[in-house]
Every structure is written in structure tokens, then in C-alpha cells.
Write a structure and sequence with these properties.
Blueprint lengths: L1 H17 L2 H11 L3 E2 H8 L3 H13 L3 E6 L2 E6 L3 H16 L1
Helix pairs in contact: 2-5
């Protein structure tokens, strides 16, 4: 029961994070492949500070991974395997809308 409660809490956090349009749009863009902040700004038409703030929230929630290459940081969808399966299902459903 404790494990199930922990999973429910984890998923509730993820869905709160996904409740923001900018973060959801960023995840949808990253689902297609790795992007840096500049590419995400262009794709979403959002200022760089806004994207960086939302990427930080997504990273803290464990939904995105980052990797540095020189001065650039590239982001990709990532996370715990169980949670990631649910998130991918949500993203796939959202992409069909």
C-alpha cells in the first residue's frame, strides 16, 4: 500500500507539472527529439528566460534530461521508466488532439 501511495504521489506531481501549457508544449516538442533552449524558443515562440524556467521545473520533476555540449545544453524526454510510460501515453494522446 505504501508503494502504491508513493506512485500515486509521484504521478500527481507529474500531472501538476504537465498542467502548464508551456511545459506540455515543450515536452511535446522534445518527444520528437533532443533540442537546445534556442531551438525550443523558436519552436514554441517563447522567450529564453521563460523556456529555461520551465525546463528547470521539468528537469526537477524528472521528465527531461539534459546534456552539455560546449556552451549549449540539450534537453530530451526522460524519467523513471514507469512514470515515463504514463507520460508518453499522455503525450501521444495530446499529439492526436
Amino acid at each position: 500500500m505504501a508503494k502504491q501511495n508513493s506512485q500515486v504521489e509521484s504521478l500527481a506531481t507529474i500531472f501538476r507539472v504537465l498542467g502548464d501549457q508551456t511545459r506540455l508544449r515543450a515536452l511535446l516538442a522534445l518527444q520528437r527529439g533532443e533540442l537546445n533552449v534556442t531551438e525550443l524558443c523558436g519552436a514554441l515562440r517563447v522567450p529564453q528566460p521563460t523556456i529555461s524556467r520551465h525546463l528547470g521545473i521539468l528537469r526537477m520533476a524528472g521528465l527531461v534530461n539534459n546534456r552539455r555540449s560546449g556552451k549549449e545544453i540539450f534537453y530530451s524526454v526522460g524519467g523513471a521508466q514507469g512514470d515515463l510510460k504514463i507520460v508518453r501515453s499522455v503525450l501521444q494522446a495530446a499529439a492526436k488532439m
